[in-house]
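Structure, all two chains, one model.
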Amino acid sequence: MPEDMNEDRLKSRIREISLFYHQKGRMPSFSEIGEITGLRSKNAVSKLVDRLEQQRIIARDDKGRLIPRALTAPLRILGAVEAGFPSPAEEELADTLSLDDLLIDNPDATFMLRVSGDSMSEAGILPGDMVIVDRGQTAKSGDIVIAEVDGQWTMKYLRKRGESITLVAANPKYSPIKPKNELKIAGIVTAVVRKYK
Amino acid sequence: MNSDPITIHSWPRAILHLDADAFFASCEQAIHPELKGRPVITGKERGIVAAASYEAKAMGIKRGVRLSDVKKICPDAVILPSDYETYSLFSLRMFSIIRRFTPDVEEYSIDEAFADLTGLRRHFHGSYDLIAQQMQDTVEKELGITVSIGVSLSKVLAKIGSKHRKPRGITMIPGREIHRYLGDLEIGSVWGIGPNTAAFLRKFGITTALDFAQKNEAFVTKHLSKPYIEIWHELNGRSIYPVIKESKSSYQSISKAKTFTPPSKEESFVFAQLSRNLENACIKARRYGLAATRLVIFLRRQDFADSGAELKLTCPSAHPSDLFGPLREGFENIYRPNTLYRQTGVVLAGLVAETKVQYTFFDDTAKIEKMSKVYDAVDMLSEKFGKYTVQHAASLQTNTQSQHEGERGDTPQRKQELFKGENKRQRLGLPMLDVDV
């Protein structure tokens, strides 16, 4: 009887249902639960389902079909231990970065800019390249910044020594700039994108 | 007049309304930093002002003014074509920034949002004022645009706050201060009270929002209908309208309209414009799983006079193939030869959930099934290769003839200067800064 079912047997039944769910990508029907758990009567299956529903492991939709609730998270670990390796797609790829994630730290504050000059060519930023500009970060010494210096826009390394600020080009053709009146930093360059084909 | 506080409770609820300042023009100034401080106007392709920066407003330029007049009033104005793609990106980011402060955010329009701040003071270790301040600063730092914020006990009051001081204003209206803000506010300026209701209320000597708020419940329920009773409660600091979290997933109607320049009297071109609007509206309806029961079409003449027609559909649909018949019928009713038209529009109205559409005995369900498969395929192709990869022949002329001819620079810069790999229809989802470096 399901009422007497001890904890281990219950756990193993949850495991079977979880395995079915992960392999097939859907919840089993009542008769399928009977098959995989070895319960022969519909009544027993129904009592098992009631019990799992009470424990908030599964739920039923308005048509009575089953929905996984706590079936996924806690049981995935069990799956790794006792039911062989879970599918690589699910486990291994869950934590990978997309190119967007890699290149963009703060999606709300990121802009792009097409480079026209060659002042950063020695830093590997060439005319026609696209740079990713983050407005959300505060510029530190050594960052490549997009800045307005005395009314002129430029992309340079920011050098801070104590109180003094200098903007330095990567191309030796250009001499360092010391802002006379005003320096406004519009953002810092976090990446450069160049597409060849 | 009685000037006692309306309520003594300062913050039983804290509803915030955020309104971007001259949004379209501010976006342009953010991506073209050299335009900061200059009068900027968008809407070049439409021939009228869509948005004016505060510098332009200061010179007396308002929304809807014709561009030929703008040049007379303010010869220095920078007039740009609308770049809705960039404005939409800014809008999404603005909402995303607000969501960093509270999950309860309602995207009210492209440049406005409501947010429920109730209970967040402890979390932020500060007042509601401080939270509003931080929100305003973050938007300005990360997006380079300014916003105005109102915080009060209800949506109607929060909206009064955000309008109170602009640009870059923050107006806090706690319960005990409400009466101070309503006293000078003309009744017609209250959100939701239109000119007719305002005129009606004036007959009872109600000229300000405070007059209205101070009326007793008996008066309000005797003379007014439910929406206005709700506004009366909201003005009294009792929040009725909830902040609706879901991003818009249902619509009562979907409308698409587009202007073309120069105006045209060519029947097939004007119809193609209408057809393109229909396709566009149907794409949106399908995206939200909706079907229209009524179709409204309108044509706007060169002199801004509109003519329109409304058609009932026999069966709800979001498939242009079903709607072309009524569209043609309506068009032939209102189109006059030898008349110059500047804009066409389509409204899908009486929307119902597609899943709830009931077919009658006489509907050819097999054919309907088949068409819905065709449109599923069309939508999939659009997602992969860009909008209108597959389109109706009736809209073709909108491709062969450009939407706006004549003066150069009517296409936004973003659509002209493509990065390698971008195309006419699909570009990277990042705003592009325009500075020479």
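The mean pLDDT of chain B is 90.
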